[in-house]
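re: ur msg from earlier - yeah i can do the 3-methylcatechol complex, just paste it... oh wait u already did. ok heres what im feeding in:
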Amino acid sequence: MVKVTELAYFGFNITDGDAWRDYAANCIGMEVRDDGESDRFYLRMDHWHHRFVMHIGKEDDLAYTGWRVAGPRELEGMARQLDDAKIKFKVGSAEQAQERHVLGLLKTTDPGGNPTEIFYGPRVDTNFPFYPGRRMYGGFVTGNSGIGHCILREDDVAAAAVFYEVLGLSGSVEYKLKLPNGMVAEPYFMHCNDRQHSIAFGLGPQEKRINHLMLEYQHLDDLGAAHDIIRKRKIDVALQIGKHSNDQALTFYMASPSGWLVELGWGARKALAQQEYFTGDIFGHAPEAKGYGMDLDL
Ligand code: MBD
Ligand code: FE
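and the outut:
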């Protein structure tokens, strides 16, 4: 069986390019890259050509996720796996691969309707090192762990789990959280490498395809610096600083210019070989700004 090796890129549709350039560079520390295309710009986290494609348009939502496989034979194997699972997909044309700066790709949709790309061979610009958008103590945790994680909208959690299992991820419910209305939320987390989770879903109904994305700093001081900057700017914080039980990362959740949340973190532990579940976080993550789809008592 072929497995994806990492969550490697995001595409977003955004309405306010200037707000995002400022936020990504000066709050998060990402590098803004322009290749002279009027309808998009890129955000970098490491020596890859890019990690985020920011498409400027009329909506604010996730445009696609990009999942990497090792090489061309693995991409063929993945196509056979999708066929066997009766999942519809299209083989990307040479132009579509070029547009993503990869050697080859497949395009499909997950059960929640989230456009999903599987590719091999990203363009890596070793001669163009990462240059952070603001002073940083270090970089982002990427490498074999991928860029981070996202929580996506999946109305059918069981179907979503099967879909991502076909891609080679594994996981389970990792929390049982009592909600004020008496129901129990059972968010489902999945991994494909040593990052504890690359994708999660099952937080309940949400307005946008994406609830949040998470990026991880190598140095605690970069998390602190980001926190100082966004507090000074009075950017909404949905969940205050706290430590998750599953990945044990120290994180906080803030609003992005597009309305979905960005979770910034540090110090996550590696994925375990076996599943476990929790009824709350280790400390913190107190709710603050409401209405971001994170009105949870972790
Ligand atoms: C996470 O990254 C997260 O977003 C939630 C809701 C719970 C555990 C880890
Ligand atoms: Fe998260």
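cool cool. The chain has a mean pLDDT of 97. ping me if u need the other ligands too
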